[in-house]
Amino acid sequence: VEINAGDTAWVLVAAALVMLMTPGLGFFYGGLVRKKNVLSTIMQSFFVLCLIAVVWALWGYSLAFGEDRGGLIGGFDHIGLRGVSGAPSEIYGTTIPHSLFMVFQMMFAIITVALITGAFAERKRFKAFVLFAIAWSTLVYSPIAHWVWADGGWLAEYGALDFAGGTVVHIASGVTALIAARMLGKRVGFGQEKMDPHDVTMTILGAALLWFGWYGFNAGSALAADGLAANAFVVTTLAGAMGALTWMTVSWIRHGHPSVLGAAVGAIAGLVGITPAAGFVSPSSAIAIGFGAGILCFFAVDLLKQRAGIDDALDVFAVHGVGGIWGAIATGIFADVAVNGIGADGLLYGNAEQLVKQVVAVGATVLYAGIASIVILKVIDLAVGLRVPEDEEVLGLDTSTHGEIAYQV
Amino acid sequence: MIVVAMILFFALVAAWMVSPSGKPMVKTAPTASEPAPSALQTETSAV
């Protein structure tokens, strides 16, 4: 194994791009909340960036990518980054330094936890959030990352395809967000008072940063500066664009306006949809995947908020959960070995079995992330309480938890 | 060094757990170096 300078340069940049997604997510979410909670919302993303970086280095990476233990989890051989150096791994990203592969994966671990915070918005106790982030990253993220991406992981061995994290990142975080929203309960005044986004421009800025970072997320997952990375770059662009166009159109038909916020959220839905498929599908398939994500996620928001009455404050499940499930299944439909020889053909190319494998991966991720999250949240609720008292929630978390105010004008 | 790093990390987590929480910021009269709160600021506590 020998280090390739081009691959290394690209993955270094890609890791930095994925890092930027987490503060970008903070802006995306921050604009969507009321102005009394904007700092607390941004803080959740920024804090996760710092917290999970350390957790990942101390034990998270080892549990995800250490030596396989029964297909379920990694061992302790890389604890504290032992054995992770500037030399390439013999297994992962064999043309880049092992430490670079580790830090690239660290950025994924970080943003996955940050995504869930949209469901906690405006009511979660900060201490509970700290404990949750550590526990969830350790007990849910690392094992699922091992199943899907590690050598010997059971879903990887089974043949399920997930190029950049449809199951590991988006389904796991989306399902957990739904559970968390249900367990936390609705915000005070939900359904009775307006809870409109306080700054849509901030959300658009966040969406733009997320989209920019997504090139590192998807094209970087090729772990090389090659044609596969370029294809991932192209399909990422097309799916994001189609997601935005589709959501905006449906929103225009249903609500009478081509919503700016709808275009931004639609782009994110399209980007989520293409994530697991980015290394396996053609540009035309990416257009279909983005279209599907725009439609499905739009109606999922409607269904959850209006019909089910679940206060997933920033629509994490509807966008990341539903978009991730669609993307994973779409991978089983549109995957094409002409795009990636080490992938597989999907249903459209005569391999229905791949669709079954994708459904199994979705089911396993939903079940495990859901059940483990219920247990984690229940234990934390008993230990420190999940939710702030009502008077603190009404006052706003910026003031009551952080002792700061976002806007001085 | 791995043990030291672990100890440092868990010391921080322990400190967060015993630190005060939910203490609303008490706004007193503005000082000379601090501008008076605007209408937008005060609105946050009126919701």
Short description:
The complex is a heterodimer of chains A (409) and B (47). Chain A is mostly helical and 409 residues long. Chain A has helices at residues 5-32, 38-65, 98-120, 126-149, 154-158, 166-184, 200-219, 227-255, 260-274, 283-308, 316-334, 352-383, 390-395, 397-400, and strands at 68-69, 73-74.
Shape of chain B: rod-shaped
Estimated share of beta-strand residues of chain A: under 5%
Residue windows where pLDDT falls under 50 for at least 5 positions of chain B: 36-47
Radius of gyration of chain A: 20 Å
Helix/strand order of chain B, N-terminal first? HH
Counting helices, strands and paired strands, the structural category of chain A is: mainly alpha
The whole-number mean of residue pLDDT values of chain B reads 67
Q: Which percent range fits the helix content of chain A?
A: 55-70%
Largest interface: A-B, 35 and 21 residues
Discrete helix count of chain A: 14
Stretches with pLDDT under 50, minimum 5 residues of chain A:
none
Question: How would you characterize this protein structure?
Answer:
The complex is a heterodimer of chains A (409) and B (47). Chain A has 409 residues and is an all-alpha fold. Chain A is built from 14 helices and 2 strands. A two-stranded antiparallel sheet of chain A has the order 1-2. In chain A, a hairpin with a 3-residue loop joins strand 1 (68-69) and strand 2 (73-74). In chain A, helix 6 (166-184) packs parallel to helix 12 and helix 7 (200-219) packs antiparallel against helix 8. Helices cover 47% and strands 0% of the residues of chain B. Chain B has 2 helices and no strands. Classes of the chains: A mainly alpha (409), B mainly alpha (47). Chain A binds chain B through residues 34-36, 54-55, 57-58, 79-80, 82, 125-127, 130-131, 134, 193, 384, 388-389, 391-392, 394-396, 398-401, 403-405, 407-409, and chain B through 1-2, 5-6, 9, 13, 16-17, 21-25, 35, 37-38, 40-41, 44-45, 47.
